[in-house]
């Protein structure tokens, strides 16, 4: 698939105005306050995985409405129990669950603690499944989660999943051997959209790693692509022809650019310019406007891959994330600075 979105020179200047709904901040403040009334951790149980260099715990924490959410918590086996490590909270892509604990160990191998959150009501499309049901399925929509409760923000699936993601950060800070001041949000695709939402809702996050984020530049994405999961919205609206106005209002409450505006953490982005699943203009809109309303100038950089699609830079991008994150957490590349630009749209 050839490049189909804006040319790179225009993407680098793409700073769209976002039709932000009245009450956006109040909506998320009240949602998170309600979820925060319950203690986050429910259970933490070590499991045998057959891995000698990694220890893993099966964690259950309370997410949206106090619902139990499952996660894998892993640490390098050689790290002392009292040694506090930075923690990477990783969010999985659309249709995936947490799978099996040995599937995703990049951050543990880099020396970090890692919490891999399950996606409520997902896990049946890729990987090795999930373990967290979504009990709030009364609102119409489906069959994919992208349209569940789409007519009202209070009922929308992503209100619940984003709340789970924020609560995952709270939960990992209460686990033994984690440095609560050095918690990182990371994810690709849907996971990238969740990580970006967390960055906008958790003001003291240490860093953000996001590739090919879903839920960014949603209005433009709906005009550009029929690929799932955006295509699920188009299909839904082709049947429910009277729902477009309500659907667009609901989606404005989970717009990634709105979260990016409020984010403060140092951020590392990646994007494939041939991505027809999450069009690159969404990632650039979030990147270009990142931190504008935070009262700071967060350090940020973005890496574009002209011949890659939704996989982005794949292992090359992960290598860049590893090196960048080590520098940020070691204090050699974090904090805030005045923006500047250079080759590859890296903003130091």
Task: Tell me about this structure.
The radius of gyration is 19 Å and the shape is globular. Strands 1-2-3-5-4-6-7-8-9 form a nine-stranded mixed sheet, sandwiched between helices. With 348 residues, it is an alpha/beta fold. It contains eleven helices and nine strands. Helix content is 31%, strand content 19%.
Write the layout of secondary structure elements.
Blueprint: H1 8-11, H2 24-35, E1 41-47, E2 54-62, E3 68-76, E4 85-91, H3 106-109, E5 113-117, H4 157-173, E6 178-188, H5 190-201, E7 207-211, H6 218-224, H7 230-239, H8 244-252, H9 256-262, E8 267-272, H10 280-288, E9 300-305, H11 314-329
Parallel strand pairs: 4-5, 4-6, 6-7, 7-8, 8-9
Antiparallel strand pairs: 1-2, 2-3, 3-5
Helix pairs in contact: 4-5, 5-9, 9-10
InterPro entries: AB_hydrolase_fold, AXE1_dom, CE7
Domain Acetyl xylan esterase: 1-326
Protein name: Acetylxylan esterase
Distance between the termini: 32 Å
The percent of residues in helical segments reads 25-40%
* Biggest sheet character: 9 strands, mixed
Quickly name the level 1 CATH class.
Alpha Beta
CATH architecture group name: 3-Layer(aba) Sandwich
Shape category: globular
Question: Mean of residue pLDDT?
Answer: 93
- State the domain count: 1
Domain Acetyl xylan esterase: 1-326
Protein name: Acetylxylan esterase
Pfam families: AXE1
Organism: Streptomyces dubilierae
């Amino acid at each position: 698939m050839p490049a189909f979105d804006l040319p790179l020179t225009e993407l680098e200047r793409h700073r769209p105005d976002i039709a932000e709904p009245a009450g956006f901040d109040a909506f998320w403040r009240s949602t998170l306050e309600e979820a925060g009334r319950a203690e986050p951790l429910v259970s933490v149980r070590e499991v045998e995985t057959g891995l000698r260099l990694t220890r893993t715990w099966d964690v259950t924490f309370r997410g949206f409405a106090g619902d139990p959410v499952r996660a894998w918590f892993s640490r390098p086996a050689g790290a002392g129990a009292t040694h506090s490590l930075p923690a990477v909270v990783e969010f999985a892509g659309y249709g995936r669950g947490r799978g099996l604990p040995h599937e995703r160990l990049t951050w543990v191998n880099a020396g970090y603690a890692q919490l891999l959150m399950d996606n409520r009501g997902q896990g049946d499309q890729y990987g090795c499944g999930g373990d967290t049901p979504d009990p709030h399925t009364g609102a119409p929509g489906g069959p994919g989660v992208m349209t569940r409760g789409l007519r009202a923000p209070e009922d929308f699936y992503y209100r619940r999943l984003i709340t789970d993601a924020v609560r995952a950060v709270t939960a990992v800070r209460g686990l033994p051997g984690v440095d609560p001041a050095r918690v990182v949000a990371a994810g690709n695709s849907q996971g990238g959209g969740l990580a970006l939402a967390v960055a906008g809702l958790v003001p003291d996050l240490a860093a953000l790693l996001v590739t090919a984020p879903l839920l960014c530049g949603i209005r433009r994405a709906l005009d550009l692509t029929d690929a799932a999961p955006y295509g699920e919205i188009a299909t839904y609206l082709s049947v429910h022809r009277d729902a477009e106005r309500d659907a667009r209002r609901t989606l404005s409450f989970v717009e990634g650019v709105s979260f990016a505006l409020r984010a403060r953490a140092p951020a590392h982005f990646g994007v494939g310019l041939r991505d027809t699943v999450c069009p690159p203009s969404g990632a650039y809109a979030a990147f270009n406007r990142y931190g504008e309303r935070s009262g700071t100038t967060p350090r940020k950089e973005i890496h574009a891959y002209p011949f890659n699609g939704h996989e982005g830079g794949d292992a090359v991008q992960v290598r860049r994330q590893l090196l960048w994150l080590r520098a940020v957490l070691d204090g050699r590349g974090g904090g805030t600075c005045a923006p500047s630009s250079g080759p590859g749209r890296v903003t130091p």
